[in-house]
């Protein structure tokens, strides 16, 4: 079923516009909340993914987080410069780069759950539990997960 046509398409009312606007607002607020940890919201995604074992290579993290490999490399460079993670070549396949948090990276990652929920909860405060679950369900459906 097509929901948009050239007759009814209004950019500021499109799902793409609304999702992007919500993402931009969350990014600014999350970046502000994470400022004391000296990381960005995108860097937070990398640190938490490594902490939770959701990925261990730049390729895996790029795919998981929806970030192109060029941007991923630049973000990993910054995290490595901050001594939050280290890269090492796989012993089995020298083309593969493995990522691991440093002790400092683990300490920063451990503080993220003290900060991030407040930013998200501020936007979800008027949602019932059912509405919250439905929003997550619909976003997963939109992403075709």
Brief account:
The chain is mainly alpha-helical.
Describe this structure in words.
- The protein is built from six helices and two strands.
- It has a two-stranded antiparallel sheet.
- With 145 residues, the chain is mainly alpha-helical.
- Helix 1 crosses helix 5 (103-124), helix 2 crosses helix 5 (103-124) and helix 3 packs across helix 4.
- It has one domain (19-142): Orthogonal Bundle (Arc Repressor Mutant, subunit A), CATH 1.10.10.
- Strand 1 and strand 2 (97-101) form a beta hairpin.
- The protein is globular, with a radius of gyration of 18 Å.
Based on the coordinates given, report the CATH architecture: Orthogonal Bundle
Low-pLDDT windows of residues: none
Shape: globular
Spatial sequence of strands, sheet with the most strands: 1-2
CATH fold node name: Arc Repressor Mutant, subunit A
Report the count of strand segments. Answer: 2
CATH superfamily: Winged helix-like DNA-binding domain superfamily/Winged helix DNA-binding domain
How many angstroms separate the termini? 19 Å
Beta-strand content: 5-15%
Number of domains: 1
CATH class: Mainly Alpha
Number of helices: 6
Pfam family, one: MarR
Protein name: Transcriptional regulator, MarR family
Organism: Caballeronia sordidicola
InterPro entries: HTH_MarR-typ, WH-like_DNA-bd_sf, WH_DNA-bd_sf
Q: What is the topology?
A:
Layout: H1 15-33, H2 41-51, H3 58-65, H4 69-81, E1 85-89, E2 97-101, H5 103-124, H6 129-142
Antiparallel strand pairs: 1-2
Helix pairs in contact: 1-5, 2-5, 3-4
Pfam families: MarR (PF01047)
GO molecular function: DNA binding; DNA-binding transcription factor activity
Protein name: Transcriptional regulator, MarR family
């Amino acid at each position: 079923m097509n929901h948009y046509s050239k007759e009814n398409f209004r950019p500021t009312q499109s799902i793409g516009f609304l999702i992007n606007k919500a993402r931009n607002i969350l990014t600014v607020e999350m970046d502000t909340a994470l400022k004391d940890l000296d990381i960005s919201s995108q860097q937070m995604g990398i640190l938490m993914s490594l902490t939770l074992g959701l990925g261990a290579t730049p390729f895996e993290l790029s795919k998981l987080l929806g970030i192109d490999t060029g941007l991923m490399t630049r973000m990993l460079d910054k995290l490595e410069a901050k001594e939050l993670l280290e890269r090492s070549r796989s012993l089995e396949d020298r083309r593969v780069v493995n990522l691991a948090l440093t002790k400092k990276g683990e300490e920063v990652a451990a503080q993220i759950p003290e900060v991030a929920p407040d930013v998200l909860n501020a936007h979800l405060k008027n949602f019932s539990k059912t509405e919250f679950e439905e929003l997550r369900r619909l976003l997963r459906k939109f992403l075709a997960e």
